[in-house]
Specification:
Blueprint: H1 2-6, E1 12-16, H2 20-31, E2 35-39, H3 46-54, E3 61-64, H4 79-107, E4 111-118, H5 130-150, E5 155-162, H6 195-206, E6 217-220
Parallel strand pairs: 1-2, 1-3, 3-4, 4-5, 5-6
Helix pairs in contact: 2-6, 3-4, 4-5
Length: 227
């Protein structure tokens, strides 16, 4: 019974992203029986995305964890940095999701789109998170739009809003350390999370157990928003 609900045997999954959370998801999906392609740093251009999907012609599941992050003070944030963040986090997300839908429609089995977003997209956490927070809010909007437009094809689209998961360091040269009113330990009733806290939620959304979940932004933050 559990395997029929949460197993991914016979499914083809593409996990995008080099961070610890995408790694944990790729590992768990493999353990659940999926054939997993893990693209850590793909070229997020139209040509690059098309080439990436050529290697997964029978795609069932896309997990998008490709991000550019890093807070900058208001007066230090350049438009080049703004554009760089949005190019990956919004434009790149759209290109990946669009190509996934094209692939899923072609084989006619439906599929799942899972975006890795952040609680910073709905609630300011770090000082100076203008570019990252707004770009992830854009991803949330894309998640819901794809959910509406692709449901008739049996394709569900959801996002996971990830809380405080100690992960990779901020980009070199980022002028603001990761501090702010949202990162105090007492703001997280269950403490800081781990990538392994997020991966099972992605499995739920990708598996038969999540068949009727669509257009949702699921918060996994250890209680941050109620503290």
């Amino acid at each position: 019974m559990l395997n029929s609900l949460f197993g991914l045997s016979g499914k083809n999954a593409l996990v995008v992203g080099a961070g610890k959370v995408p790694h944990a998801i790729a590992s768990l999906f493999g353990s659940a029986g999926a054939a997993v392609t893990h693209a850590q740093e793909p070229e997020l251009t139209e040509e690059g995305v098309e080439a990436l999907f050529d290697g997964v012609p029978e795609l069932d599941i896309l997990v998008n964890g490709a991000i550019v992050t890093g807070p900058w003070p208001l007066d230090d944030l350049t438009m080049d940095e703004w554009d760089r963040v949005h190019a990956t986090n919004v434009r790149g997300a759209f290109l990946l999701m669009r190509q996934a839908v094209r692939t899923m429609r072609r084989h006619g089995r439906g599929g799942r789109l899972v975006n890795l977003s952040t609680i910073g997209s709905v609630h300011p956490v770090l000082h100076g998170n203008y570019a990252y927070g707004s770009s992830r809010a854009g991803m949330n909007a894309l998640t819901r739009q794809f959910a509406l437009d692709c449901a008739e094809d049996g394709i569900a689209s959801n996002a996971i809003l990830v809380g405080a998961i100690p992960s990779d360091p901020f980009p070199e040269g980022c002028p603001v350390p990761p501090k702010g009113p949202g990162v105090r330990p007492e703001r997280f009733p269950m403490g800081y999370g781990t990538p392994e806290d997020v991966a099972p939620v992605a499995l739920l959304l990708a598996s038969a157990a999540g068949r009727y979940i669509n257009g949702q932004t699921i918060v996994v933050d250890g209680g941050f928003q109620i503290a």
